[in-house]
Design goal:
By secondary structure, the chain is an alpha/beta fold. It is built from ten helices and seven strands. It has a seven-stranded mixed beta sheet, sandwiched between helices. α4 (96-105) links the parallel β4 (88-95) and β5.
């Protein structure tokens, strides 16, 4: 039986029963094989651009005798799909900019997709901004610690009232963390995560503040005007993040 990491298990638990899955950047096809073995997905496509992971995925599917239910394909992003083949798409373990590029380049392949499960390693704000701009509902977010690293999973659903619901979510979250917080900060930190932050959320942002302090220390030594403008911006962003964390620490049960 396949055992998933905490990160992949968090994604697997959010795949609806009976889904036709596409796992883009599937690596060893662990997620599709697990979901097929558990009877959660009816079919799956494992997409991989690089030869090594593609061959490893093929072997994984063969070993588990799942060739009839899982198709392993080599190609870039959503190019491995035909429109209508998948109703749930997973893109995990990439930077936010790469995830957005894959979604944008293959936008026509999303016509019949009802759920996106996205796990950016960085650039979560870019992903949330793209989803909102394209009319996807930010349905859920989770953050977890796995193998000493912190991961975020963003669940986006196709919903007829997505724009209205997203607008309400951002407004309500901004009000909860102190009122008047800039929308970009809510998108940076995650509206659902801000609404109910677990310990991993605080661990992530305490670590981010340490990184920012190191960057600002370097900028302070520069006399370059561009560096000084960047320093001023980072100082203001850092101040806002500290205020949000303090507010959340105050109100949490």
């Amino acid at each position: 039986m396949i055992k998933l990491s905490e990160r992949l298990a968090a994604i697997a638990s959010r795949v609806p029963a009976g889904a036709a899955l596409a796992d883009i950047g599937s690596d060893h096809a662990l997620l599709p094989c697990y979901l097929a073995e558990q009877g959660i997905v009816r079919t799956a496509i494992a997409g991989e651009i690089n030869e090594g992971p593609y061959l490893a995925a093929c072997e994984q599917v063969r070993q588990h005798r799942l060739q009839a239910r899982i198709s392993v394909r080599r190609g870039d992003g959503l190019s491995v799909l035909h429109t209508g083949e998948a109703d749930v798409v997973v893109i995990a373990g990439m930077g936010g900019g790469t995830i957005v590029r894959i979604l944008a380049d293959g936008k026509e392949k999303l016509a019949y997709v009802r759920r996106l499960l996205l796990q950016p390693n960085a650039g979560e704000k870019l992903v949330r901004e793209w989803l909102i701009a394209q009319g996807w509902l930010l349905a859920e977010e989770t953050i977890l610690l796995d193998g000493g690293k912190i991961y975020e999973v963003i669940v986006a659903d196709c919903h007829p009232q997505a724009r209205r619901l997203n607008s309400a979510l951002l407004a309500q979250t901004g009000a909860r963390i102190g009122g008047g917080q800039a929308e970009d900060l809510v998108l940076e930190m995650g509206p659902h995560l801000l609404a109910a932050p677990p310990p991993a959320f605080f661990a992530k942002w305490e670590g981010e503040l340490i990184k920012r302090e190191k960057v600002m220390a370097g900028l302070k030594r520069s006399i370059n005007p561009h560096a000084q403008r960047k320093l001023a911006l980072m100082k203001e962003q850092t101040r806002k993040i500290r205020e949000v964390l303090q507010c959340l620490q105050t109100v949490k049960p």
